[in-house]
Amino acid sequence: MKKEKVLEIVRGKATADLLPEEVKMFTAIGEALELEEVERNAAIQKLASKVGVFEEGESAADILRKVSQKVESMEQNVNRGFSENTKYNLKKMLEDRRDEIVAARKGGNGWAIEFKAKRGAAALMTTASVLSGAQAINNTNVFDDMEVAVIAYPANFIIDAIGGRQVSKVPQTWSWKEQTTESTNTVAAVSEGAEKTLADKLFVWKYATRKKYAGRIEFTEELTYDMEQLFIMIIEMFERQVVRAWNAGVQTDLLAWAPSYTSSALDGYFASPGISQVIQAGKLWVSDNNFEADMVMLNPADAAKAMIMQNSNGDISYVPEAVAFHGLRPFISNNVPAGTIVVGTSNIVKEQHSIFILRRGVTGTQFYENEETIVGEVFSNLKLPTITKNAWCKLDTATVLAALTEEEA
């Protein structure tokens, strides 16, 4: 008993006999401790009966952790259930066969329904679906490759070839002073006291006007929800499309501006010239006009022909690129027509352009049709000087090949 134990401990520690009042006090303390122990044991027993018995070595925390993992697994399985669209299709199929199912249940007969669901692509853009070529696939062993294959295009000619410069604001008009034709009077050696030749230097103002290369795409709101990554890639593809239009516009302007080949010391020099000799003639033509060409722009077909050499017997040998292009840096592009080659000096041409500008908004009825428009644009101003245009040379391959071929004796 607790009270006897308490008195025993107190008497063992006391230095004198306990008074009657002290005995009563310590007895009461023992009885209180004894009652507290009884109540505590009863509470523990009641809790144990509710919780149950744990396996040896297993705590309540371990059990709760396992329960939490099972609940999480069940939630994931629930999330992988039917979508709303799938539920609708299933309900419709059941309704279509309602009479058959009711009859089967009344008669105690078994019944079955085959249901295959495949999520269809949402409506994309405004005039046509972005994804095409879809087909029914009943085999569940399908790998959905998320990489999107796109059309390949050449590098940025403006940046790589002529060193176009990006500016915060492209000027509407680019003006520069340009020397006109030299004076007919020439500087020459003169005798002592003789009159010196008067040499005139004349300049005129030249101008280039800014251009804007732009386009737009339209899309539905569902595209941004259902296929976000594809939508991001479409924006990137659209940006590259605008940049390609900008490149093509600049190359078209260069082709129209570059002067045509007239003649050089290589005319009539080759028994069987090829494309490589046409490039060589263009480089010499530029050198004859006191410039040093450093690049050549040509179609892929002409580039391939430049690296092939054939003798009079029809034997073919392949020419290294550096030799075929005579040290010029090649820029191969389908923007240059086959049969046309341009040899030039890159630092003669200047270009300024803006960043790629992307704007997003709605127009017309798009607001209440859940559609949007994205506009992309690039501003560009191309400086093509007149006085130094002979630093570039445009060659028609058929014409130049005929000029380079030696006449038969």
Written account of the structure:
This protein is an alpha+beta fold and 409 residues long. Among the domains are: 1-42; 157-188 and 198-404, Major capsid protein gp5 (Major capsid protein gp5 fold), CATH 3.30.2400. It contains twelve helices and 13 strands. Helix 9 packs across helix 10 (300-306). The protein starts with a helix and ends in a 5-residue tail after the last helix.
Structure classification: alpha+beta
Quick one: overall form? elongated
Poorly predicted sequence stretches spanning 5 or more consecutive residues: 115-124
Radius of gyration based on Cα positions? 45 Å
So what's the oligomer here?
Answer: single chain
Q: Alpha-carbon distance between the termini? A: 141 Å
Mean pLDDT: 76
Q: From the 3D structure, determine the CATH topology of one domain.
A: Major capsid protein gp5 fold
Total beta strand runs: 13
Fourth-level CATH superfamily of one domain: Major capsid protein gp5
Largest sheet: 5 strands, mixed
Q: Which CATH-level-2 architecture of one domain?
A: 2-Layer Sandwich
Number of discrete helical segments: 12
| Beta fraction | 15-25%
Order of helices and strands: HHHHHHEEEEHHHEHEEHEEEEEEH
